[in-house]
């Protein structure tokens, strides 16, 4: 998939001396603003919470916040890792805030959220990697707004004991998301602190412990991967019984981050979506602006419907065998 762009597609030079691709029209979005956007911004500021929308410089922030949708980032704003694609600050994090679960529940209540997405920075400094804080947040949201469905986007908990994952699974989030981010070949440069098969195994363990929890994972495209590698990752995910695949375009947040090697076209994203559906994913979101939590609530509703239809189909097939 990766190609060498024509000279006129390169318009500027980064600090490292490498040229930077011009962003195509299909990736251009309106600047955020408006009353609803400002209201969401004010509520998040009032409660002292961080969002991945801001910290990761998400291009969809204007649209999502206007709709009063936000992905809350717990465990502080400082990550213990330094992934080459990520805009979140790296360093020594502060202590875990004991008031954070209640504040997240306040956001769910005040924004009348039907579905909430909760993510976090990596906290390798904590004994359980922050798993217990995820559980506290889930419990707080359920206590305050019991009808809100909960999706979590977790770190890999690499090097942590199994009970870190066990306690999260026992809390039974509706969706367990952990992104593989890129193909195995690129891990040493893109995710140097992570291991591909550790992340893959994490998703597999969730399904082994509680098959009723939907699992979800995603890739950024445009980092230099090729089609064969992407298809192999899809196969690996299906082997781990992942329900939901997201594919989106990587965007370089600053000149110091790894550069974009290719802007994948909408048609290419559609082709990947067709391949993914053929491989058996129950749900696929594939477009240049797709992100893990983009339209997460609507996608979750469709995912539940897809599973129900699948179960009904299996039941009908079994009845036919018994007849």
From TrEMBL:
It catalyses: [[Fe-S] cluster scaffold protein carrying a second [4Fe-4S](2+) cluster] + N(6)-octanoyl-L-lysyl-[protein] + 2 oxidized [2Fe-2S]-[ferredoxin] + 2 S-adenosyl-L-methionine + 4 H(+) = [[Fe-S] cluster scaffold protein] + N(6)-[(R)-dihydrolipoyl]-L-lysyl-[protein] + 4 Fe(3+) + 2 hydrogen sulfide + 2 5'-deoxyadenosine + 2 L-methionine + 2 reduced [2Fe-2S]-[ferredoxin]. GO terms for molecular function: 4 iron, 4 sulfur cluster binding; lipoate synthase activity; metal ion binding. It comes from the Bacteria. Its cofactor is [4Fe-4S] cluster. Its EC number is 2.8.1.8. Its main location: cytoplasm. The keyword 4Fe-4S applies. It is an enzyme of class 2 (transferase). Keywords: 4Fe-4S, Cytoplasm, Iron, Iron-sulfur, Metal-binding, S-adenosyl-L-methionine, Transferase. [4Fe-4S] cluster 1 binds at residues 53, 58, 64, 293. GO terms for biological process: protein lipoylation. GO terms for cellular component: cytoplasm. Residues 65-282 form the Radical SAM core domain. PANTHER family: LIPOYL SYNTHASE, LIPOYL SYNTHASE, MITOCHONDRIAL. NCBIfam families: lipA, PRK05481.1, PRK12928.1. Belongs to the radical SAM superfamily. Lipoyl synthase family. This is Lipoyl synthase. It comes from Zymomonas mobilis. The lineage of its organism: Bacteria, Pseudomonadati, Pseudomonadota, Alphaproteobacteria, Sphingomonadales. The gene is lipA.
